[in-house]
Amino acid sequence: MRRFHNWSRTQASAEVAWESPRSEAEVADVLSRARRQGKRVRPVGSGHSWSAIAVPEAIALDLSNLAAPLEIDAARRTIRVQAGIQLKTLTATLDRVGLAMPILGSVSEQTIAGATSTGTHGSSLAYGNLASLIEELVIVTPAGERHVLRRGQGDFDAACVGLGALGIVTELVLRVSTAFALVGEVQTRPILEIARDLASIGASTDFVKVWWLPGSEGAQIFRYHRTPLPPADVRLERWLDTHVTNRVLFPAALAVSARLPQLTRRINRAVAQSYLERPAVPMRSDLAFNVAMPPIHRETEYAFDLADAPAALTAIAESIERERLAVNFPVEVRFVREDAAWMSPAYGRPTVQIGGYMSDSVDLPRFFQRFEEISQSLAGRPHWGKEMKVDAAYVRQVFPRRDDFVALARRWDPDGTLRNAFLDRVLGQE
Ligand SMILES: Cc1cc2nc3c(=O)[nH]c(=O)nc-3n(C[C@H](O)[C@H](O)[C@H](O)COP(=O)(O)OP(=O)(O)OC[C@H]3O[C@@H](n4cnc5c(N)ncnc54)[C@H](O)[C@@H]3O)c2cc1C
User: What's the confidence (pLDDT) of residue 335?
Assistant: First the structure.
């Protein structure tokens, strides 16, 4: 028995039993025993969600013994993996044979099933979120079934962003690409101008994101272009960013801004000029997508229809300025191609993800509250892995396939074995 806690230590469970199955049969066995005993089970990945989505109540199902790459088909550019593999192991495995993930988010500590189950994404209108790379998945359910689901068939679109509510994913086949390098280009522009221009910025290149440190002269647009140049060896720079900048210097600046919030904007200005506007060198794609592991902080994030995103970003920026909120982390804007996964925040619409991030400081509750009020007034869909104050009625309003998803969950998990308090709240208990 031990407790679960997430990466930011903002979510924790009571003492729960841990199961670490070594085969799919053992996964099925854990589910059937738990169902018979009326105990709730939660699959846990790397615990990198800020929301309480992974918090176990009786049994934590840890898939770290089911974390192997199984088969690479270089000709078809696919890889079959066990569900508990971490993204960093997956990318290293691909790199050894000249392949790469076509898109990644900011870090690669997550497991593939944990990441796809919440709709984890990078930034690209050309590529979808990580779940959109799935070609096939295997899922075992508390009802005692094993489903092999292929893209375009049956319940695939329900299961690939499954919130851990339909069953335990045990294997996936992913579509990958040949290895590639990216070179970054940084442009600084006023945030309100960027907000007006989001559609053309999103379409300007395959990989583009925006960071805005409130109080700084402008926001940074980071564009990444494919390059034939050999990638530079950035291991030392990345090590220094991770272990010195993000473990010592940035936390020191955050401690100052927590004590003296009135200095936050000045600190942000200095950070933006000295750190964010640095010129970039060609990098292996995974190193360009990932950033150095950030200091502990909290995140909320909503997904908007590309058409509503200018209004959302404008309102968020104006509210930060009007209320002089001491926001000590970047507001991040990313793009995601629309997809067909029922519970994906990018379901059925080209999407702009706007993230509000902050390390603990006096204005955090007010900032997150304003951020969520604005997001919900524009039909924003919450990122399942981030902090949110939403109920089942709101989820039903903004996820058009919510009722179908809940009906399928009732068939595959008739006794709610895979539920926890978070899923009860956001999916409802009817
Ligand atoms: C530092 C940091 C950076 C991040 N960057 C990004 C980013 O760039 N883009 C982005 O979109 N998100 C980002 N996130 C959020 C993160 O990607 C998601 O919260 C992700 O779901 C975490 O994956 P995990 O492996 O830690 O899973 P967990 O958080 O442990 O679990 C997430 C969900 O997956 C379910 N699950 C896990 N394994 C299985 C399985 N085998 N079968 C069925 N369900 C399963 C769990 O039950 C839970 O519902 C970041 C988080 C952190 C802490």
Answer: 98
